[in-house]
Amino acid sequence: MLKKELRNKIEAMRDKLHEFIEKYGIDSDVVLNLSQELDKLLCQLENMK
């Protein structure tokens, strides 16, 4: 995945995460799973050159 594509995906996931937090609350499995996925993508972005 290209760096630009990864950034776009991260931004979209951040928006979705905020929506899910409002809808389901911070302790929801849906929110926690999306948060973990977002963390993985952020790590990938940090490791890209």
UniProtKB/TrEMBL annotation:
<dbReference type="InterPro" id="IPR053028">
    <property type="entry name" value="Spo0E-like_phosphatase"/>
</dbReference>
<dbReference type="InterPro" id="IPR037208">
    <property type="entry name" value="Spo0E-like_sf"/>
</dbReference>
<dbReference type="InterPro" id="IPR036638">
    <property type="entry name" value="HLH_DNA-bd_sf"/>
</dbReference>
<dbReference type="GO" id="GO:0043937">
    <property type="term" value="P:regulation of sporulation"/>
</dbReference>
<dbReference type="Pfam" id="PF09388">
    <property type="entry name" value="SpoOE-like"/>
</dbReference>
<dbReference type="GO" id="GO:0046983">
    <property type="term" value="F:protein dimerization activity"/>
</dbReference>
<dbReference type="InterPro" id="IPR018540">
    <property type="entry name" value="Spo0E-like"/>
</dbReference>
<protein>
    <submittedName>
        <fullName>Spo0E like sporulation regulatory protein</fullName>
    </submittedName>
</protein>
